Amino acid sequence: MFEIKPYPDLSWSLSRHKTMLTCLRKYAYDYYVSHNGWLNQADTLARQTYRLKKITNLEMLFGSIVHDLIYQTIQKTLKNHPILDEGAFTDEVRHHLNRGFIESTKKEHLWQNRPKHYTMLHEIYYSQTNTLPEGKISKITDRLNTTVKNFFASKTFSDVLNKENMKFIESETFRFMKTDGIKIFIVMDLVYKNLKRNKWVIVDWKTGKSSDEDRNQLALYALYLKQKHNIHSLDDIIIRNEYLVDGTHVEHQLTEQDLINVQHLYQISMEQMRSFLEDASKNQPLPIEQFPMQEDPRVCARCNYQELCFST
Questions:
Q1: 196 vs 115: CA distance, rounded Å
Q2: Residue 188 has what pLDDT?
Q3: pTM for the whole structure
Q4: CA dihedral 92, 241, 135, 308 (to 10 degrees)
């Protein structure tokens, strides 16, 4: 039976760590104030915060749609089911983007009550104009055409089509490993074993630009895979970023130092997270005033919580 707790369980992920570094007030809203905000009996602030947490933006919506369709395409290929061709795939992405726009502009009342099930775009919510910036529409349109083409031409999809020589592991689900009783959440796009080369392959699809954080993310995945499948050597793991915007892929050979670095990052990060707890045994946070606000207006302009931070 589902238990309603006053505070969430303390967990860790790279995205949580990144949020903490970006803005501590946003961190508090995301991981504490919004807790239980999906319940009808939740207080007004929790419900409002949870609703704002679910706002997305055009780039994030695009990335989410593409990831979902890639996952579906790969699953169908592995089961020998018919798949969408490039044109139909592109049309499907466009259809979902249009639906997100319509829900944001014409179904706000539905989103207000069920924010998890309807889309609200940041660009619509905070501009109140019911229009998207022309520059963004143009950017996403260009990105759509190249991304789909590059997925079908990718090294990884070629491996998927050559599935007889590959062993695939169910990967697009929430997974975690535990360290000192704390869940570390990991979401991997694709994991398989190349039987000819006797190598494990971890793939991460990217619909945006490359980032310095990509290597840490992949090191965390490798650490998880190494523990989960008792892989003795990192030489047996290939880490691959598929950059769908420019059609390139980058393979990393990680070292033990990479794993040490990501474990060190986790330890420092958890120490900082615990410093914002009033009662660590309950994961009860300090009062919201103890979480400083970001001072860079450029960061605030992209944030979902403007309504809370600047309403007074």
A1: 46
A2: 87
A3: 0.92
A4: 90
